[in-house]
Amino acid sequence: MVVGPINQLKGLLVPIAAGLVLGGFNAWVLGATGATVVALLVGGFVTWRTTRYEVGEDRLEIRKGLIRRSRRTIPLERVRGVDVTSTLLHRLLGVAVVRIEAAAGSAAATEDGKLDAVAADEAERLRRVLLHRKAVLTGQETGPRAAPGGGAPEAGEAARGEAQAPPVPEDDTVTYFAMPRSWYLYGALSLGYLLTPFAVLATLFGTVQQTAGELANDFVVDWVTSSDRGFLLVAALVFAGVLVLLMPVFAVVSYALTHWGFSLRGRDGSLVAERGLFTRRSVTLERRRIRGHELLDTPLERTRGAVRLRAIVTGLGDAANRAVLLPTGPRPVVEDVVGRALALFGGTLKRHPRAALFRRLTRAVGPFALVAVVAAALGAEWLAVAGAVLAVLGIPLGVDRYRALGHGYDGERVSVRSGSLSRSQATVERSAVIGWTWRQTLFQRGPSLADLQVTVGAGAGGYTVQDASIGESVAFAAQVTPEMVRPFLEDPGAPGHKG
């Protein structure tokens, strides 16, 4: 009755405030504002009275609505994940949001269930019950612990918690990682967090533009035209300088708010990642659906030997956020967590041919060098200088991109690495490989290079070995999945072989 109206009111605060200020606080505006608040409170009461959920032996059913009623049934065997999220408001009221992601019968579609403002302990109980029963129905759990309990299904009311707890496995939790305070400083190495002040300013500007409209435009134009230009220039430079100096501070603060108290635990056959200060989010990933992991970094992060960890999971929506297993931190610590929670790649990455270095230098230097030559011929000196500078800067970029290339196989896992400004090393289980795709452009044919995509049924769907030798890439694929590749290879000793 409280969370729903407040969440809806947050989106109306700016328009209501603008209407009150611009409207001069007249009776009509005050009456409309009061009516809106009353309508939201009534809506919250109706939602609370009409929302019910029931956990059956093989399904979750959610019913809601008074005039427009809805009933959503989610088969428990199709449940892919159960996330528990608590905003600051939810935590103050002792409640949480339970989101259930489930396959809808096709690879592209999903059917989601959402229970908002259930009691915090009830949210955790629902997570355990749903994942446990899903494991029982799909045959992933056997023995005495697999018994679903029998009897009638339990039912509950949203935010009332009248459901009786069914028998579920004991909560055996293993803590793999608890974030130390020193890790928050790594936020200053992330370009996304460094740009937080500019994103905030853009949001504020857009909000003012939408609410005030022409009034704001006229005010800014009048202020600029009436002010001294020298003063405006100095003020702009000072503001820009202060903003740049505060970028690391904003980055660390934003990073801390997002990843505050980050922890990674093993529980009930799943990995549970929990994070956030104001909005606390708990994401559960079943181990059986985790097919590998990614280590990601940027040039700034590499200067401090830092990486991020993300899981490669089958059938996961919003993987960029939900698959995060560790935020940016020291590589040795991250690799230690990978070794204990998952499995670390035990082989070495093979370097790619020198022809791949030439291709990366051509891409990084060639376009800017061409611009510099054309600009010099046309007499555009500044453009020629800029093109030449960018061409020179492209040399270390091309070399770094070449050094990042690599692929390997340790007998159980395949690992592929590429990228410079955003480098990624993806490691997947051999059993996750479902196909291979070779692609060769006209410019790759001369040096006998090709791009080999390792197709997997998880994560991004495929990871590319860029600019690898054709012969070496074929041998690599045949080593990983011989039963898949060797039937397509020619045997020189076979009858009728033409070479």
TrEMBL record:
Superkingdom per UniProt: Bacteria
Residue ranges with Low complexity bias: 154-165
Presence of the UniProt keyword Transmembrane helix in the record: yes
Chain ranges of the Rhodanese domain: 27-57
Keyword DNA-binding: no
Annotated transmembrane regions: 12-42, 183-205, 231-257, 368-395
Pfam families: bPH_2
PROSITE patterns membership: RHODANESE_3 (PS50206)
Region (Disordered) location: 141-168
Record's keyword terms, sorted: Membrane, Transmembrane, Transmembrane helix
Protein name (database record): PH domain-containing protein
Protein species of origin: Nocardiopsis tropica
